[in-house]
Amino acid sequence: MSSNWAGYTLSVDSGSKDAPYCRKQKSLGLLCTNFLCLYNREGVETIGLDDAATRLGVERRRIYDIVNVLESVGILARKGKNRYSWKGFVAVPKALDDLKKDGLRDIGQTADSGSEKVSDDEDEMCSDMNNLSQNEKSDSNSVPKSGSQPKLGENRKEKSLGLLTQNFVKLFLCTEMNTISLDEAAKILLGNGNQASMTTRTKVRRLYDIANVLSSINFIEKTQHPETRKPAFRWLGLNGKPDNGTKDSIVASESNKRLFGTDLTNTTAKRMKTMDNAKQIRKPQNPIRVKQETETDDERTQSAGNSYQFGPFAPANVPKIATSQNDGKEAIDWESFASTYKPQYHNQALKDLFSHYVEALKSWYSEVAGKNPIQLMS
DNA sequence: CATTCCCGCCAAACG
DNA sequence: CGTTTGGCGGGAATG
After folding, report:
1. Long-range residue pairs from A192-196, CB within 8 A, at least 24 positions apart, any chain
2. In this predicted structure, what is the pLDDT of residue A92?
3. Most exposed: A76, A244, A294, A343, by fewest CB within 10 Å?
4. What is the share, in percent, of chain A residues with pLDDT greater than 70?
5. What is the largest CA-CA distance in chain A?
6. Which nucleotides of C are covered by protein (CB under 7 A)?
7. CA torsion, points A309, A316, A263, A74, in degrees to nearest 10?
8. Rounded Cα distance, A131 and A145, in Å
């Protein structure tokens, strides 16, 4: 008798055996998935933040996180107060391309002329790529308040998340590194060349948030370094990205295991075949292997998202509390996206130039995104 | 023990 | 002034 296992925070079982918390159910990744399922459908034009918060049953704060990172990739666009407009995945290619060009430009600029100069990293999410309407974007509000916060051009705003996301993505797009660990990323784009300390810690925390969201979108996937078993993320980007450049070697290692359904915070447990031990030391001659590639009009992204695949989740339930707790299982499984995306053959020709890359990258990044934050009056 | 990362306080940025 | 946005870090859950 008395085999009650629970008894913790269980005040009156409201007719449901809710799980004892379960952190995964509240992860940003899952929330993002639900968010997408809710809005990635034709007909959706604008999204109300509070509306989303209510429907998803989370605090407003969390919505901001998701929305910010999605905006960085072009899926959403800030329309105004409390309102975002849905751009969809069709807008992603363009956004990514922009980021790529942007990042490449910065690199070349720095790498080029030895002069210092630099300054400016230029990033901004004010991507007015909308070629629709002339809207004057009432954003650039120059003159930040009269007589206020004049000193120190440290932008008090847009200091993270949005920019961090873009920089993080740029890192993948502009480098040959296909796999990056959050730790490295944090160190590289902490937006400065300071010594790591607590700043990095915080940065990493943010990076985790971003990574979770991007994983949810399947833009990246959690893996681990070929050699080291350190957890890292691999860029998947769109799908039909034949990569390019290194056509030599690597012969398509047969169908890859690009499987949908991984996400969530942990992924994998799959035992990677361990990369062969063909590790050849990279020549210390080429630091940073920038992805020098021409434009590439790889876009060809899908057409509207037709993912009407609701699964077990998000029934747009009540506010909170009294959660019906629908099943409470992983709701990962949206083949809807699978149809949208196509399997890609990514020949990871990554050897192990991490050390070099990291250092090199650090160098130019320090200059490029170095302190000297552009004081664009945003 | 180390890694992952949620929660939410509380301050800038608007209206 | 109130409200919307969202840095930032503690510290709990997880591996």
Report:
1. A192/A366, A192/A369, A192/A370, A192/A371, A193/A362, A193/A365, A193/A366, A193/A370, A193/A371
2. 95
3. A294
4. 43
5. 80
6. 4-11, 13-15
7. 80
8. 30
For nucleic chain C, give residues with Cβ below 7 angstroms from it.
A 21-24, 49-50, 60-61, 64, 67-68, 81-83, 157-162, 198-199, 202, 205-206, 265-266
A291-322 pLDDT, tens digit each = 655 444 444 343 333 333 333 333 333 333 33
Looking at residues A123-144, what average pLDDT do you find? 35
| Strand blocks (E) in chain A | 46-48, 76-80, 83-86, 179-180, 220-224, 231-235
Determine the Cα–Cα distance for residues A90 and A299; give it in Å rounded to an integer. Answer: 9
A84 forms bridges with which residues in the sheet? A47, A78
Residue A238, exposed/middle/buried by CB under 10 A (0-12, 13-18, 19+)? buried
Q: Cα(A230)–Cα(A324) distance, rounded to whole angstroms?
A: 38
Higher pLDDT, A48 or A15: A48
CA of A208 and C1' of B11: distance in angstroms? 23
- pTM score: 0.65
Q: What is the mean pLDDT of chain A?
A: 62
Structure tokens at A330: 């992983």
Distance A265 CA to B11 C1' (A): 31
Taking 80 as the threshold, does the pLDDT of residue A7 lie above it?
no
Helix (H, G, I), strand (E, B) or coil at A104: helix
